[in-house]
């Protein structure tokens, strides 16, 4: 049977020691975040993930959701009770504004505990996860009345939320959508159309579901410039704030999916459903992108989460499974064979996943901290810098972590051999669940195009130059430290690859855009490798400092950090040269064949 243990020690090391979260206590929400408080919150989250959510993961996958003839949906056994405990414990409102019933704590902390929840049960965690995005959109673009009507119940978890973009004939190209909105005399709209792939679109765990739906107002321009965003509740909210009349928003079917069976991914039919405009007419994508950006960070976290639980199970199996003898001599003389973990190729797999997971955890928390600074800091320049970096790294984090997360789920499955292919060990579920994250919130090829085609040149390249400077300054500041030489030398070399690839785009992609498209995915991964390398260099520097000052019972943990950091620099970071070479190969061979030749 599968296992899961939340990586609490690693999370606290990153928050307290690497990022120094206490240094941000001048920012709203951070003043009460002491190491003791962090320890308590993270510990409680780990307990909920391990003891409540995780035991339902396998059974939820096997049972799935059931749609009934009346369009209602029942979630797997135990999901409703687990969600109720999650809701009552206040986890959904951890980082939400206090004025609407939240706790106002940092988004960084929400991200930290979000990893545990998603590792333990990705399907179940998606119900409150989608709600978080809807909350963010209503906070930023809703009217005072809309905020008062919906936010308290959503932050309390009594109501959940969704995002409705995709239609049967259009996915990423939202300019093709057909859902329409007809204005009504009372200021509301009648929404009609069909949406597909709507996660948590219908379920039995909340009193109301608040759908955020993209549609085109009658007479609005064609294309993306004519799209508006609407709040469409499952039940119309009465004057006293309670759910009233059933709206014309129904689940027509549950998608038959490869994975995440415990989440009700619905075909949603809107038949003259009452909706309320959120934000400005014909500017719906601007409002929806608030939700999508929040979701992209959450989906990147899913990539890490599945990689982590797959890794833990692969390690446990490799320690126990006897298979062959070590190349360097017998390691278990009292047994007929040595455990898998003695073999170098098994170590290659496990170390690759481990090095990714620990750096990705730092990357997600570093990015979440940028989000907190961008949204909460009182210093305008500080907000600007953080917002620039947040916009730049969001597609990198989403694309790289989900691509690698899926790859690592497959690698972990391989450790099990044939036992990884059958359902009893649970590894196939992690592979199936991880696959969707590469598609969510814009497939990863779209993330790469967003990065290269839009983010690199934004504001004259201000964000990417700031990133280059931050990493370059770190290398320069630690160049004279002999203990850091191995890390800074490798990091500087990879940064040079990234800077050279960026310059190549400037020289070769403006006149020939296909060069940008051809190299975009490699550039996204090249950027991700450099940022992950930067995270490892920062962690190595921190670990060395703590060891030098007396690590106590953390000595083994910190020494293992340095070993894993060195592995990353030696075995993974050199991939930047390969990525750069592919980018500089251009698009000629990619685009040479006529379409009919494929």
TrEMBL record:
Its EC number is 1.3.99.41. It catalyses: 3-(methylsulfanyl)propanoyl-CoA + oxidized [electron-transfer flavoprotein] + H(+) = 3-(methylsulfanyl)acryloyl-CoA + reduced [electron-transfer flavoprotein]. Residues 467-594 form the Acetyl-CoA dehydrogenase-like C-terminal domain. Keywords: FAD, Flavoprotein, Oxidoreductase. The keyword Transport does not apply. It comes from Rhizobium quercicola. Residues 282-451 form the Acyl-CoA dehydrogenase/oxidase C-terminal domain. This is 3-methylmercaptopropionyl-CoA dehydrogenase. Belongs to the acyl-CoA dehydrogenase family. Its cofactor is FAD. One of its GO terms (molecular function) is oxidoreductase activity, acting on the CH-CH group of donors.
């Amino acid at each position: 049977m599968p296992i899961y243990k939340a990586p609490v020690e690693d999370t606290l090391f990153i928050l307290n020691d690497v990022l120094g979260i206490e240094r941000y206590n001048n920012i709203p929400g951070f003043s009460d975040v002491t190491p003791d408080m962090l320890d308590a919150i993270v510990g409680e989250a780990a307990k909920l993930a391990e003891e409540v959510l995780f035991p339902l993961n396998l059974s939820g996958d096997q049972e799935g959701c059931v749609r009934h003839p009346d369009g209602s949906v029942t979630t797997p056994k135990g999901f409703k009770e687990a969600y109720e405990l999650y809701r009552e414990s206040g986890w959904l409102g951890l980082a939400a504004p206090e004025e609407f019933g939240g706790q106002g704590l940092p988004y960084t902390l929400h991200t930290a505990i979000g990893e545990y929840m998603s590792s333990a049960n990705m399907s179940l965690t998606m119900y409150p996860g989608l709600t978080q995005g809807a909350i963010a959109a209503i906070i930023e673009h809703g009217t005072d009345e809309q905020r008062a009507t919906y936010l308290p119940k959503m932050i309390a978890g009594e109501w959940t939320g969704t995002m409705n973009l995709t239609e049967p004939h259009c996915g990423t190209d939202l300019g093709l959508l057909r859902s329409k909105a007809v204005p009504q005399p009372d200021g509301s709209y009648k929404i009609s159309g069909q949406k597909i792939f709507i996660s948590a679109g219908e379920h039995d765990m909340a009193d109301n579901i608040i759908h955020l739906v993209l549609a085109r107002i009658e007479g609005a321009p064609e294309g993306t410039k004519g799209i508006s965003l609407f709040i469409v509740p499952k039940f119309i909210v009465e004057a006293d704030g309670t759910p009233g009349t059933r709206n014309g928003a129904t689940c027509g079917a549950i998608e038959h999916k490869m994975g995440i069976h415990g989440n009700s991914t619905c075909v949603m039919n809107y038949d003259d459903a009452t909706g309320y405009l959120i934000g400005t007419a014909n500017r719906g994508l601007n409002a929806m992108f608030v939700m999508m950006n929040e979701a992209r960070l959450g989906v990147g976290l899913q990539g890490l989460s599945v990689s982590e639980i797959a890794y833990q199970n692969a390690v446990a199996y490799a320690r126990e499974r006897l298979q062959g003898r070590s190349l360097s001599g017998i390691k278990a003389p009292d047994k007929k064979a040595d455990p898998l973990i003695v073999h170098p190729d098994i170590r290659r797999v496990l170390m690759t996943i481990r090095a990714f997971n620990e750096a990705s955890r730092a990357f997600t928390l570093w990015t979440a901290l940028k989000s907190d600074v961008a949204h909460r800091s009182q210093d305008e320049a500080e907000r600007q810098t953080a917002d620039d970096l947040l916009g730049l790294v969001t597609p990198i984090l989403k694309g790289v972590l989900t691509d690698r997360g899926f790859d690592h789920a497959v690698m972990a499955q391989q450790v099990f051999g044939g036992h990884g292919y059958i359902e009893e060990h649970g590894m196939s579920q992690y592979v199936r669940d991880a696959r969707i994250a590469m598609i969510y919130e814009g497939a990863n090829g779209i993330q790469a195009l967003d990065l290269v085609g839009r983010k690199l040149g934004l504001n004259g390249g201000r964000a990417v130059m700031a990133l280059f400077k931050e990493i370059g300054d770190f290398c320069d500041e630690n160049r004279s430290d002999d203990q850091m030489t191995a890390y800074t030398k490798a990091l500087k070399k990879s940064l040079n690859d990234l800077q050279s690839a960026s310059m190549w785009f400037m020289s070769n992609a403006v006149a020939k855009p296909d060069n940008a498209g051809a190299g975009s995915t490699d550039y996204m991964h090249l950027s991700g490798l450099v940022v992950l390398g930067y995270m490892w260099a920062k962690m190595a520097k921190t670990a060395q400092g703590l060891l030098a000052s007396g690590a106590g019972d953390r000595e083994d943990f910190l020494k293992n950090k340095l070993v894993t950091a060195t592995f990353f620099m030696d075995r993974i970071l050199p991939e930047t040269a390969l990525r750069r070479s592919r980018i500089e190969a251009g698009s000629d061979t990619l685009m040479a064949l006529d379409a009919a030749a494929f």
